[in-house]
Every structure is written in structure tokens, then in C-alpha cells.
Amino acid sequence: MKAYVFPGQGAQFSGMGKELYENEQAKTLFEKANEIIGFRISDIMFSGSDEELKETKVTQPAIFLHSVILAKTLGEGFKPDMVAGHSLGEFSALVAASALSFEDGLKLVIARANAMQKACELQPSTMAAILGLADEVVENICNDIDEVVVAANYNCPGQIVISGSIEGVDIACQKLTEAGAKRALKLNVGGAFHSPLMEPARIELKEAIENVTILPPVCPIYQNVDPTPNTDPQKIKSNLITQLTGAVKWTQTIERMIADGATEFVEVGPGNVLQGLVKKVNRAMPTSSATTI
Question: Is 194 a catalytic residue?
């Protein structure tokens, strides 16, 4: 069984999607996206600087567009048995699996990026990668801190990202290092994604998600907050709303997809970060990057 996975924020690079533009279908979709967004995001993707690509209003739609347009150009070769996306990638996965239209998916991603940016500006906050500790140790230490700090991304065994207030993350990094973490590395991000500090963004995005049409996907989707096979549109919506403040359970997602019969993983979008994470869960699992016909 073939599992397709879609990357999230951080996978962007200058030149992303440029080769896709030569495909007529892809060109049409890029131009449609430029129209919806109101500026030529394709130009920034193909030749913009790293700084331009880091802007929130650019990063999330750019990664979404690269992933979704690549999936659309795979033609008959794209027959997913299951899909999943890391954080933002969940929206790409839903469009690729025909649960969400291209236009609605893009509009939701833009709304999500704007809502997250606003939430980041309300309170200074950050994230940090913790390497070499068991999940429970990280969770217990975060729970004992009298500040907002939570386990936000379960990326692979031995790698968790924590998220919260600057003070909370600083205290947690110190305590986790004392508990034996190999590294506690603060990340260069704009805010505390997938933590309670994203509650204003969750409220703002909730209405947009509730009003959008989501159809049953062509195959099960394994979502970040509930990594079990799902094809129910209402449950998909509920999980999407929870995602902004809930943890990305990526380790559990990959483990469950393998348990459910996945025999290979194909990453659709910029970079190969997710392939590396799959290998950390199961070294023997074949992985590859999707390429246009």
C-alpha cells in the first residue's frame, strides 16, 4: 500500500516549483493561485530570496501550492491508499485526496497563515527541538512548569518540539537538558505553534473551516491530532480546527500507517524532511520523492 505524505512549514526553498510551471496544468493552477492571493506568489517561489519566502503570508501558501500542484501533475500515477500531512501539510493532503477543492484549500491556508501571524503578535512565544528524551519525560517536565509550554510536534522517536511562552520554553530547555536531553535547541520561528497560545487563531479559523465544503477523501487521511484512518467530513473538520492548538502526532501517524499496511511512503512537496522522519520510525521502510511524469 502506497502512503503519500505532505510537508509543512520549513520545507520552503528558493526555486521551489519552478520546473512544474512548464506543465500546462500546473501553469494554470499557479496563475489561478496568483489571482486568489492578490500577488504573484509564483514569482517569489521561483526566484525570491529566503527572506521573502520566510514571510508568513508567503511560506504557508507556497508550500501548499508546491505540494498540491505536484500531486495534480502526477496524473494516473497518483493513486494513494492513504495520506497524511505534517501540520500545514494536512491541507495539502486533503486537496490531493479530493476532499477539498484547490481554491477552498488555498483560501483556508491563507486564512490560517494570517490567523497564526496575528496570534504570534499577541504574545511573544517560541518553540524548541528536544533530542534524545522519551516522550513521557518531556511531557512530565512541561506539565510541571508554571508557564505555557507543551509538547507540540512528536516528529520521530527521540525528537519532540516543545512550544509555548518564551519564559516557559527557556525553563523547559534548562530542565530537559538537566534530565539528559542530547540537545535543547530553540527554533527560529515566529510563535508557539500547536500550543494553547494559538487559541485566538483557532477561533478565527473555526468559522472558515465550518463553512467550507469537505467531501469524503478518495482514501483515508491520518490527521495530526487523531492519527487513525478517517474519511468522515465532519470529523475531518473537527480535527482541522483542533490542529492549531493540538499536537502534531507524526510518530504515531507513521506507526499507525505502517500497522495499517503501508509498504512505501512518497513525499509530495519541497524537500525530504518527512522521508527522514519515516526512516527514524522504521529504517527498512522504502521512501521517495514524488516526481512529475
Answer: yes
